[in-house]
Amino acid sequence: MRADLVSASFSGAVEFIFAPQESNVTGGKEVGGFDKTLELLVGHIEVTVLALALALLIALPLGLYLGHKGRGELLAVGIGNAGRAIPELAVIALVATLVGIGMRNVAPALALLGIAPILVNAYVGVRQVDPAAVDAARGMGMSELSIIRKVEFPLAVPTVMGGIRGAAIVIVATATIAPLAGVETLGDFILNRNVYGENGLLAGAILVALLALTIEGLLALLQRRLTSDGLKVKTA
Amino acid sequence: MASPAPLAAAGQVGGDFFKERSSDTLPCQANESHLFCFDWARENIDRYGTPTQQHLEIVVLSVAIGFAVAFALALLAHRTRRLQPPLLAATGVLYTIPSIAFFFLLLPVTGFGRDTAIIVLSAYTLQIIYRNTMLGLGNVPDSVRDAARGMGLTNRQILWKVELPLATPEIIAGLRVATASTIAIATLVVLISAGGLGTEMYGSNFNFPTAILIAVAIIALMVLAFDLLLLTAQRLLTPWRKARSG
User: Cβ of B22: how many Cβ atoms within 10 Å?
Assistant: First the structure.
């Protein structure tokens, strides 16, 4: 098997991304190319965004609320610890086995993986807010909801965003094996080696790595935009 | 029939993946409402021996190597402060690259098999162990450091006899997270033919949850066992904490 791989090279993989080529397994049929890459890239981003949005919708309000109330520490921390130990392959395999395949089943499964980091970080972030700031806000007559929205959340942004970035990383990564459950993503190039060949395999790996780094970079930028200037001065 | 035939290397994926495995044709597979087939589990539990052992070996080696490297880097950064930002960034980038992509990016260099798996998995532990070690060392109060210096301890003695013992809870916390996530990610090394419990998930028919659930249960037990082990180690290494809290 090791000998097969001599045929894979980084230059070959880059060519594969931009122009269709004959692979070592297809017997003359051309595979890969920019159109296919774009199609799979869109699929990958689609399922990632959907799953991340779903995870945010569930975990962010819950984490902020629990942190605000100071309740459910065991729940939040327990989910966080258990979440890290969930094997991604098991999630995809079990969803395909027990629930079904396709975007509608896979996106919620990926969201499940993103819930743990978002929930824990939102909880911890709000708990770390100086109680004096919250008391002052309450003394000024702010409602509980606006305390969360205007005091606790802005002060917790760096921690909350850390959780969202963690969730994005695990979702993008797991979306790579989503083709096993019938969702076409960049993982197709990797998993279907008998269609795309060795160059496709390597091309898939390069694309997935670049996509993850790009998303991480964008979220880091977003974090800087969302963090209030007051907090930046303190940390500088 | 029931003898656990060694699975073909799971390198072949795609279409083959969904093919039925001949040894899986057992009574309750026909009935799809079965979530868990105890008959199959009883007859086939022995097939999990080798994958479990492979899984354990890969996890222990990866975490050990990751710890050695991250710990050394943390000590270096502790002494030379200006190394801290680049090291944090470097370990962070490694952590961001999805493991599956990482495996295959290394293939032209290290090929299929366990070496590649261990390199990737140990690279993944660096961030959390490095960060927690730095956090622990940073949490040591300056007054304690001053007292140690006042007692005439050298810098090296302060590090090994004062700072590191006080940082042990954070370091162990990092190891616990790193070990748990390594056990989980190690299911993916089946993709590069490095064995492990992923073999039984990946190789099993996707119509047959029993095989997957057994692997998941073994993984959960493994996570718990390592967690208990590390907690015990922490208790033994920091006897003064028990005295204070008790």
Answer: 8
CB A178 within 8 A of CB A232: no
| Cβ–Cβ contact A87 with B under 8 A | yes
With 0-12 / 13-18 / 19 or more C-beta atoms within 10 angstroms meaning exposed / middle / buried, residue A11 is: exposed
Considering CB atoms only, which of A97, A176, A204 is closest to B209? A97
Provide the CA A235 distance to its chain's centre, in angstroms: 27
A97 interaction partners in chain B (CB closer than 8 Å): 206-209, 212
Output the six-digit token pair for A176: 């790579």
The CATH number of the domain covering residues in A9-235: 1.10.3720.10
- The pLDDT tens digits for A10-64 are 777 887 787 777 766 666 667 777 778 888 899 999 999 999 999 999 999 999 8
CB contact under 8 A, A89 and B180: no
Set out the domains of chain B in order of their start, with CATH numbers.
52-241 (1.10.3720.10)
Q: What are the residue ranges spanned by the domains of chain A?
A: 9-235
Are B180 and A180 inside 8 Å of each other by CB?
Answer: no
CB-CB under 8 Å, A88 with B103 = no
CA–CA distances in Å: residue A98 to residues B34, B138, B213, B215: 10, 47, 11, 15
Pick from A14-23, A115-124, B43-52 the range whose average pLDDT is largest.
A115-124
